[in-house]
């Protein structure tokens, strides 16, 4: 397999290719969305160019995004493209509304590629492009993912990430100062915790303990959450990373919300999905979706 850290070599190759391939990105996305739930037939060169453009866009952004409302915050999608389209239908198309996605875009669902281009991944690439080209495309997507921002604030008072807080998080500058690209193999520390930490639902006198459910990162207590939020001067944390039966779960009163945006993620759960809608003055309500209907529920 080519070296996973040879980003500059792959960047140069794609730059050379882009001069010979005319890709109208806006038209590509428009046709992609209009096709609906059907599996789209892409060329491998189109995929590589889109991944390259995404990487360049992420590289231009800060590690900690600083956003304002109104905005919709989405949790895990896991390649369930129908859920992504349902979100756009309920909340508004992405060229008219602003969205913040918190991670777990791909794997498990059969349409991970559609999810990534709209807004076991390697196995899907292999199925659609063959093993040789799949390896190259998989690395290109990982190059793009390596430059993604790691967290975001909304209105300076809401902190959003995929996983959770960390004993290494004392100031928002700790996130701002993180360097990208992020390696595929992540050592214990702030980056790993932002991506994989979970709330500790069991009573604990310790602020942070090893996350034995995932065998990486940490579990954090309610007391640890309160102290971290006070240190960061924020009033709410929105995170993803865990299934919520009714689309969202609260932790530590209403200080932290877990959002999950893939409905029927597991057949036995038959779970709802949720999107957090945040207004310009930081009022929050949830757009809840199940396979046959959607409704709004206020916090």
From TrEMBL:
GO terms, molecular function: protein serine/threonine phosphatase activity
Spans through the membrane: none
Residues in Serine/threonine specific protein phosphatases domain copies: 42-293
GO cellular component: cytoplasm; nucleus
SMART domains: PP2Ac (SM00156)
InterPro entries: Calcineurin-like_PHP (IPR004843), Metallo-depent_PP-like (IPR029052), PP1_catalytic_subunit (IPR050341), Ser/Thr-sp_prot-phosphatase (IPR006186)
Listed name of the protein: Serine/threonine specific protein phosphatases domain-containing protein
